From TrEMBL:
The chain crosses the membrane at residues 132-150, 180-196, 359-381, 421-441, 471-487. SUPFAM superfamilies: Periplasmic binding protein-like II. It is found in: Cell membrane. It comes from the Eukaryota. InterPro entries: Insect_Ionotropic_Sensory_Rcpt. Gene3D superfamilies: Periplasmic binding protein-like II. GO terms for cellular component: plasma membrane. The keyword Glycoprotein applies. It comes from Tribolium castaneum (Red flour beetle). Keywords: Cell membrane, Glycoprotein, Membrane, Receptor, Transmembrane, Transmembrane helix. This is Ionotropic glutamate receptor C-terminal domain-containing protein. It is a multi-pass membrane protein.
Length: 606
């Protein structure tokens, strides 16, 4: 069917990422994204001119009084011929409206706030699940009762059992019944203590989070309200769906932003869109601020709507089916998603941890980098240049600080890096308090010193204990189990991995380092902050190979484009493959990249 330039009235409104508004003067090219591209192909394939109206900026619904709103109402009343915002193909019948064939499918899923980070002190209690903790407590109680059958003194039973459970040497008088029980108990404790110590090491090497909401039952128990305009929970008679429907709040604001930043509500979104938003809404360290609940309440196919009995429907269905079968709709969605991620993340200071690796084809980027430099690519800056104009940007980049990689910590010094200064002060405070408290029970300072040293360094010692000492010793030994576990774990790490002194990661760290800055760029001139003034005073004009001096002399830092600096990290490496340079995470400025032409050049528009 060819319409020979006939005008069709189209209803379409902006919706990321499926319908992104461009120049409204370009008729069928007014929107990009999958919906905009489908419209453009329909216009070309059917030879019609699209008269796009955004008068109805929402999907619409049938109200209780029978009236129809939004783009649904516009199509039903014949105000427009097609509504080109993809919508879910539902089973209910709409008067005066027909669906096209499906061009995609999707699920309606719950987008919840990302759960909070577990504090280091609380991670100890997350070493095991609740059932395992209850099992451990049950084993402790049973062991005390069984041991009491052999030893009538409760005080002695308590000390011996505590010593066994926290892996402290203790002298025991054992008969064969005790030996049998102790054999099985120690096998149990080897497993438990191994897991516990492993968790302590993990605590200081990885970030742990509380469990996320992953099922609709967990969502119901969370008590969070559900922000949506979709009647997803209406068509199911289960008790769970009825509970969730009672928590629905009509959506009249930006749902995802509130989920990400306020964390007091959840929202319903298409799964494909939600996966995109996970890459857009991120924290300063690159962690997503939202979480996609794994259990989705419903699935749909996506299509468009036309007026009932429309003569255009067969041809529209034919073209849409071809686009879907060729994979074009999926490609268009993916292309727009990538563009939105780049746009939203531009300027965000996201920490990226890159692993050192061997030279590979990836490092051949240098060839293309040299080509770009040869084409006179440069930063598009705000200042005006006489007789020169910039082209549109072809890329974006940041100016970042390239600093020398910090030195390796000697093995003997790693012992002192097992804890932070505050923890060391706490340990010394506990030692002093323990000496003073122990001195209250024992008047001989020499004996107090020997006993306390033995307890702290885990050496067997014979003690005469009263009930006050037993109580204090119980809490002290629990503290020492944690400290010794971390300390032993750090010793293992010392001989299995290389540790370095902290790198320069902020501009304040750079200022405190006292290093000069080698650059020919006036990055710090256009900012009136005291920090930037200090840094500007350390600038040395660049008249030599900056990166080589940073890598090998380690007496200066340099300013480089971030993309180039990431490449140089793989080029300047030591004999063991470790990068000799470090990219400071905080970058002072961002730019777009473009080329320059003569002012008024006739070639610039093309």
């Amino acid at each position: 069917m060819k319409l020979n330039g006939h005008v069709l009235k189209i209803s379409m409104f902006a919706r990321n990422p499926t319908a992104v508004k461009l120049n409204a003067n370009k008729s069928s090219a007014a929107f990009s994204g999958v919906d905009g591209n489908v419209l453009a192909q329909l216009s070309q394939g059917m030879d019609f001119v699209a008269d796009i109206s955004s008068e109805f900026p929402f999907y619409g619904q049938t109200l209780r009084n029978g009236s129809v709103t939004g783009t649904l109402g516009a199509v039903a009343k014949g105000v427009v011929d097609l509504a080109m915002n993809g919508r879910f193909i539902v089973g209910q019948e709409y008067d005066s409206v027909e669906f096209t064939v499906a061009y995609s499918n999707d699920k309606i899923c719950v987008v919840a706030p990302k759960s909070g980070r577990i504090p280091h002190w609380a991670e100890i209690f997350h070493s095991f699940r609740l059932r395992v903790w209850l099992l451990i407590v049950l084993v402790i109680i049973m062991s005390l009762l069984i041991w009491c059958a052999f030893e009538r003194s409760w005080g002695k039973v308590w000390i011996e059992m505590c010593s066994i459970f926290i892996n402290v040497p203790v002298k025991l008088s054992l008969n064969w019944e005790r030996k049998i029980y102790l054999t099985f108990l120690l096998q149990f404790l080897v497993i438990i203590n191994g897991i516990f110590q492993g968790n302590l090491i993990k605590t200081f090497s990885a970030v742990s989070y509380y469990p996320d909401i992953n099922t609709l039952e967990e969502l119901d128990k969370s008590g969070l309200k559900i922000l949506t305009s979709l009647g997803v929970f209406n068509n199911n008679e289960s008790e769970l769906f009825k509970h969730l429907q009672g928590k629905v709040v009509d959506r009249n604001q930006s749902a995802i932003e509130r989920v990400a930043y306020c964390k007091d509500i959840v929202a319903l979104e298409r799964k494909n869109d939600a996966n995109l938003f996970k890459s857009v809404y991120v924290s300063s360290d690159g962690t997503s601020l939202i979480h996609l609940v794994q259990e989705c309440p419903i699935s749909y196919h996506l299509g468009f709507i036309v007026t009932e009995g429309s003569p255009y429907l067969p041809r529209v269905n034919q073209l849409v089916r071809r686009m879907f079968e060729c994979g074009l709709t999926k490609k268009w969605y993916s292309d727009m998603s990538q563009k939105i991620i780049i746009k939203m993340r531009f300027g965000q200071k996201v920490k990226k941890n890159r692993k050192v690796k061997a030279f590979s084809l990836y490092d051949m980027q240098l060839v293309f980098l040299t080509l770009i430099l040869a084409m006179n690519g440069r930063f598009i800056v705000g200042q005006e240049y006489d007789s020169v104009e910039f082209t549109v940007a072809y890329s974006n980049d940041k100016i970042c600080v390239v600093a020398p990689k910090s030195g390796r910590i000697p093995h003997w010094a790693e012992i002192f890096h097992s804890f932070r200064l505050r923890v060391w002060l706490l340990i010394f405070l506990v030692i002093i308090m323990s000496l003073l408290i122990w001195c209250a029970f024992e008047r001989s300072w020499g004996k107090v010193w020997i006993e306390m040293c033995s307890i702290f360094i885990n050496v067997p010692v014979k003690l005469s204990l009263n009930w006050e000492r037993k109580i204090y010793l119980t809490f002290l030994l629990q503290f020492l189990v944690i400290i010794n576990g971390i300390f032993q774990g750090n010793l293992i790490k010392t001989f299995s991995a290389v540790s370095y002194y902290p790198d320069i990661n902020t501009l304040e760290d750079l200022d405190k380092s006292g290093l000069k800055i080698l650059t020919s760029l006036g990055v710090f001139n256009n900012n009136e902050s005291e920090l930037f003034k200090h840094l500007q005073g350390k600038v040395v004009d660049r008249n030599q190979s900056a990166i080589e001096r940073v890598a090998y002399c380690k007496d200066i830092v340099a300013l480089e484009r971030k993309n180039d600096a990431n490449l140089f990290k793989s080029v300047y490496v030591s004999s063991d493959g470790t990068s000799l340079i470090h990219l400071v995470q905080e970058c002072p400025i961002s730019y777009h990249l473009g080329f320059i032409v003569t002012e008024g050049s006739p070639y610039l528009p093309r």
